Automatic annotation (TrEMBL):
Molecular function (Gene Ontology), one example: ATP binding
Quaternary organization: Part of the FGAM synthase complex composed of 1 PurL, 1 PurQ and 2 PurS subunits.
InterPro entries for the chain: PurS (IPR003850), PurS-like_sf (IPR036604)
Coiled coil feature spans: none
UniProt subcellular location: Cytoplasm
Any one of the GO CC terms: cytoplasm
Enzyme Commission code: 6.3.5.3
Chief location bin: cytoplasm
Stated family: Belongs to the PurS family.
Protein name: Phosphoribosylformylglycinamidine synthase subunit PurS
Transmembrane portions of the chain: none
Cytoplasm found in the keyword field: yes
Length: 86
């Protein structure tokens, strides 16, 4: 069984209240090295068999039409989950 990872982020010009809350809390918790934060979404789509270029293309299409709101979000990554590094 294969798995595809899709990551979606708010467009840069869109306000991100969750990211703003995170960046405000970080220094209060002692994490002073971070100056910004934006929060996005991650989807993991399972497929029967291997993740092929056709599967990745279908995942990108699904991401652009269903998993994201193209008015306020960008699909920033569609990849085979087995290629992720820690």
């Amino acid at each position: 069984m294969g798995r595809v990872v899709v990551e979606v982020m708010p467009k840069p010009e869109i306000l991100d209240p969750q990211g703003k809350a995170v960046v405000g809390a970080l220094p209060r918790l002692g994490f002073t090295q971070f100056t910004g934060a934006r929060q996005g979404k991650r989807f993991e789509l399972e497929v029967e068999g291997a993740v092929t270029p056709e599967v990745l293309a279908a995942a990108r299409e699904a991401a652009e039409t269903l998993l994201s709101n193209p008015i306020i979000e960008d699909v920033v990554r569609v990849a085979d989950a087995s290629e992720e590094t820690a």
